[in-house]
Amino acid sequence: MSKILLTGATGYVGGTVLTQLVSSSAPSLKPLTIDVLVRDAVKAAKLKETYGDRINTIAWNGLDDTTSIEETAANYDIVVNTGSGFIPEGAVAFVNGLARRVKAGNPVPWLLHISGCSNLADRPLTQPPTPVREWNDEKDASEILEHMKVLDEAEPYGQRTAEIGVLEAAAASGVQAISVNTPLIFGEGTGLFNQQALVIPLITMYVIQHGYGWKLNETANFDRVHVLDLADLFLLLVRTILEREDRGVGYLPSGKRGVIFPTAGRVLIKDINQKCLDVAFADGTLPRENTPKTKEIRLVPLEEIANKLTAGRSDVAERGWGGHKATTGVLASKLLGWKPTRLEEAWEKDFVDELKALKEDRRMITLANCIAHSEK
Ligand SMILES: NC(=O)c1ccc[n+]([C@@H]2O[C@H](COP(=O)([O-])OP(=O)(O)OC[C@H]3O[C@@H](n4cnc5c(N)ncnc54)[C@H](OP(=O)(O)O)[C@@H]3O)[C@@H](O)[C@H]2O)c1
């Protein structure tokens, strides 16, 4: 039976992917035992207690322990790396471990890596303007990695360095690797620990604290995907590898053409702020005595948003909240039949759900964990 290893089980994305993997009724997934790398012993025990013999937990020191990662990865057919996407050495170590299997003549192994669309973003507030373009994972397949390399040479960015490193190491070693280059994720996760998204909770928090919304410019954008639709995509990838005779080799994109975009709609940052204001005014949370009486969206300085929303990282803030990063995904639906179902209605509902969660003290900020590594 195929051996599958997963990271990020305690997080928002990885936790959701794990619950969807173990609850799937697909015949290829039902008999699988998933090995899960977990740093915290208490969380490992809770995962084991919940999922029983569907998982094994393996203690590790995390994404900086490249020697152990290589040794561990060398035992698996599929690695699903859905933990922090910001640690290049650790991500590449998974490829290097899998490469040992290629050398030993085993069936070609796969790495499914999570990354993010801010890797393609410009920095329109602090750098000279560059042409804004929309990236398509099919039409632009040969250009995406090359473009990221140019950006990363000028200015290394951990999440992008990791994505480039994974895809290039895979291409060089014969390992198969896909980077799921993910936009804004929304919706409640289904994992045991962090179930919270980032963007809508953070903007909701700001809007409620200040009584007004914010923008860094008029045009900053994000594509979006519901966390359950994203998890569905990871399941379809795993199933394709398990179920097809060719194990997806030559069928799924890989290595230098291995980026796919799981996108299901596009939004502007200022419009997300508007929606947060709309729900807060609609239920009477705003205005308060000392906040604006009408809905306002103010132009604010980058430093303020970096300090309040991205753990002081102004580069992350500028790419995420000020940058342009339109990505259109066609490969997932074309090759895997991926059909996101949580669209406009789920998006609208999420703003109401997030405000409710905030008011019920069910929200905390997880960005520091998400970006994990302070490479700058
Ligand atoms: N959330 C989003 O909106 C979003 C959007 C686009 C792309 N992404 C990508 O998805 C990744 C995961 O996001 P998320 O929202 O699931 O984050 P999260 O909820 O904060 O979870 C992060 C996971 O990574 C693990 N982790 C963090 N630092 C680690 C380290 N040094 N070594 C080993 N494991 C480590 C955490 O494990 P512990 O419990 O042991 O800390 C946790 O399981 C992001 O890093 C990013 O690249 C996320």
TrEMBL record:
InterPro entries: NAD(P)-bd_dom_sf (IPR036291), NAD(P)-dependent_oxidoreduct (IPR051783)
Name of the protein this chain belongs to: NAD(P)-binding protein
Gene Ontology molecular functions: aldehyde dehydrogenase (NAD+) activity
GO terms for cellular component: cytoplasm
Superkingdom of the source species: Eukaryota
Lineage: Eukaryota, Fungi, Dikarya, Ascomycota, Pezizomycotina
Entry coiled-coil feature ranges: none
